[in-house]
TrEMBL record:
The gene is LOC110750044. It comes from Prunus avium. Keywords: Isomerase. This is Uncharacterized protein LOC110750044 isoform X3. GO terms for molecular function: amino-acid racemase activity.
Length: 351
């Protein structure tokens, strides 16, 4: 994969460029109407470093991306999008990215009460997500108006309000839970024991598990869901994330291994790691990695499938339009020939 170089340009807000992995630029703006911090929009250049002219609605497979819990998690999703695109020999689809540092902090404040060490400090304080939902909805509407033909949201906790955010959306709005559930369904997994149901484990923070959207989407596809019990959460999952925050990578890895093994022992076929903190925590050669699924990967693959399908649909539509145009030209040509013939015959009769 080619390296991505980033820099900040503090110029008036500019819309979509097109995707190229060679050079990447940021531009920022202040949305006075929403009283938010500047929202960077990721622009891509062609090989010469020049921006291609943006036309609203151009690119039938343009993807709108609402940033995740942090800049790092959003960039991880973009890397996945580029990597999975290149595996099929395709270029990454064009996209518009909205990333808001102020919103990232608000989302993090929803997840932080998941940690026992913070609960005691914020006891009695219940966070109202109304403003967060309105913020996310405004970004979704902006992306639609910017020519995005599909919206994705690479953030676990934001999917707690996916229905509210996507209400009234005029384009497809992919759901990360649906993407991973459908992939598991298509994988045609077999139960660990004959006659027993297919079980999928889910490891996430309390906030994500409480929202229940992963459980709902998995059950809709016929799976039974295995969740960490209270002891597993308190003694392995949450301590693993806290160890990671202390930069104790080895400790975090060991605790996560225990949490995954607990669910596998409870007959889970595979385990969904639905946490930004846990992605890529285990080394690639760890045997447990093969038993785990990252929903961000599933969302990236589903996004690419949609983009490829949209591109093919556009080709078919252009082909049909060309055929119709050709038929119209033939009809007009025949009509002209007929008129000329009739005119010639009329002259002959008058002579």
């Amino acid at each position: 994969m080619e390296a991505m170089s980033l820099c900040i340009w503090k110029y008036p807000f500019c819309k979509l460029g097109f995707v190229n992995t060679r050079r990447t630029l940021y531009r920022t703006r202040l949305n006075v109407g929403l009283a938010l911090s500047p929202s960077p929009v990721l622009l891509h250049t062609d090989g010469s470093g020049k921006f291609q002219e943006y036309k609203k609605g151009s690119g039938s497979n343009t993807v709108g991306i609402i940033g995740g819990l942090s800049v790092n998690s959003t960039l991880n999703f973009l890397r996945n999008l580029i990597n999975w695109s290149s595996r099929d020999g395709e270029s990454c689809p064009p996209f518009v990215l909205c990333s808001d540092p102020a919103l990232n902090k608000e989302l993090l404040s929803i997840e932080r009460p998941s940690f026992p060490s913070v609960i005691s400090k914020n006891e009695g304080t219940e966070l109202d997500p109304t403003l967060i939902v309105e913020n996310l909805r405004s970004k979704r509407i902006y992306l639609e108006n910017s020519g995005s033909r599909c919206i994705v949201m690479p953030c676990h906790i934001s999917h707690s309000w996916h229905d509210q955010i996507s209400e009234g959306c005029s384009v497809p709005f992919l759901h990360m839970g649906e993407c991973v559930a459908k992939e598991l369904k298509e994988a045609k997994l077999k139960p660990l024991e004959a006659g027993s149901p297919l079980q999928i484990g889910v490891i996430a923070t309390y906030a994500t598990l409480k929202a229940g959207f992963y459980q709902e989407k998995l059950r809709n596809e016929g799976f039974e869901v295995v969740l960490p019990d209270k002891a597993t959460m308190e003694h392995t999952v949450i301590p693993a994330i806290e160890a990671l925050n202390r930069k104790d990578i080895e400790g975090a890895q060991n605790l996560l291994r225990i949490a995954v093994q607990v669910l596998l022992v409870r007959a889970a076929n595979t385990v969904i790691l639905a946490s930004d903190d846990m992605r890529d925590l285990l080394p690639p050669d760890d045997p447990l990695v093969k038993k785990c699924i990252d929903p961000m990967d599933a969302l990236a693959r589903s996004t690419i499938k949609w983009a490829q399908s949209a591109k093919e649909d556009e080709k078919e539509e252009l082909k049909e339009m060309k055929e119709m145009s050709t038929k119209s030209e033939i009809i007009e040509r025949r009509r002209g020939d007929c008129q000329r013939k009739c005119t010639h015959q009329g002259r002959r009769i008058r002579i």
